[in-house]
Amino acid sequence: MEEYELSVSELQGKARCLRCHIIGMTATAGSGHPGGSLSAADIIAALYFRIMRHDPSNPQWEDRDRFVLSKGHAAPALYAALAESGYFDYELLYGLRKCDSPLQGHPDMTQLPGVEASTGSLGQGLSIANGMALAGRLDRKDYRVYVLLGDGEVDEGQVWEAAMAGSHYRLDRVIAILDRNRQQIDGWTEDVMALEPVADKWEAFGWHVLEIDGHDMEAILHAFSQAQQVEGQPTIIIAQTIKGKGASFMEHNLRFHGNAPNRDEMEVGLGEIRTDERCKSCRVQYPGPC
pTM for this one? Predict the structure, then answer.
């Protein structure tokens, strides 16, 4: 099992690294969903490099914590974290969305080590996470299941059925994170289908609710620590984030929900993110001007 004891500044560096991968991968592929991948980078960095118990050398280790990317279109963020963790070679990232590549537009658990669930049909991830938690209870395992939801995704009725089930079965090993970047493919979430007061809704469904700045690493770590102490009910962390976080021209820009940056935009985005000397000397270089 990998032991990660990274400091807050080191975790922030990992998040920058994930963002570089996301921009480079999607630009090289010419397609993908960079906006919602970038908004989740800090949360995923915290999970893979500090919070979760997992072992890249043994992806099927029975006692590992599980991560379910319910918003499967944010696959570039997951792939970047898996590569950085050592599940597979960095070179695979260059093949995002190419024919015969195991890195498809949405995660496929049959093709890639470290992917716990095949996702992409929105609304299903929380149900999967509940099932994993119930299985762990039956097997007397103490692993936790983390599941990342998109805020547009929670328009789906199945999410709320799963929310009811989670509280009914007192699944305190389930910790959900809502990536509250306030945009979905059709526009701003409050215009498409108003979610607010979203915290009150989850609380009414019997969940322990935490609200944080989803780009504040200290707040993220503190929220996960609090969630791990909760007994008798599942927890949801509502993370207020910015779609496209890290590249100024992508932030709050709905165009980048499902469109990749072009080569020039890639160069600008990577230049903005690689402000740290460790980033500037990054050993991973994507095809193109970066």
Answer: 0.95
